[in-house]
Amino acid sequence: MRKLLIAGNWKMHMLNHEAVGLARQLKVKLLGAHRVDVLVCPPFTALTAVAEILSDSDLHLGAQNLHDMRCGAYTGEVSGEMIRSAGGSWVLIGHSERRQLFGDSDAWTNRKLHAALEAGLRPVLCVGETLAERQAGRLDAVLARQLEAGLAGLSPAAAGTLTLAYEPVWAIGTGVVATPAQAQEAHAVVRRIVGGLLGSEVAASRQILYGGSVKPDNARQLLEQPDIDGALVGGASLKADEFSAIVLAGEGVVK
Ligand code: 13P
Q: 5-251 — its CATH code?
């Protein structure tokens, strides 16, 4: 049985005092939520401050990106080790905004995945198709390409801390959520492809999160799907009430 994971991607939001306030509220609101794992991913600048708040809680902390090198002359970049030293233990990799806006290729995403594992971070590898790719009937091919390239060189033994996220680009920040059936279908494809690459045991044990306009009122139907093991929440993760409601929706799901 895969435990549900509800993750908040705060993107480029939250000044330090706001991040601390949100983390404090979440800590209180989610005190009793033990059946679901919870992860928050603030901007780099707020990692240390949020780590301090969450240090006596069960909430997990991660970053939204990393550079694949350990250190060096890479102005403006942040390494996995730096994330660790700031208190983070997870990291998002290959988010569609990184791919579309900042040139994160499949190959670079793969290098970041290996760098994350080397730094002892738990990677959340994000994949997902654009609307044009979906309409052209290329869902499976796009997911296969992103997963094959993204997971290249990963052994089944090293996949023990891997989490995947299916985030259809057309559903991110648009308010258009994939239907539970559409999301389930894509998650099953992701699991089948991961099975082909890393074996059925790895595929069965890895969590696959759904991301794209997850809100308190649609979370439950999504999380009830057999291959949806959690959510990667953007906009709704910035409000303690909404994010907590999504976590509590997960608490209520029996699989
Ligand atoms: P929204 O929940 O705002 O659509 O964002 C989803 C996302 O990109 C999470 O990583």
A: 3.20.20.70
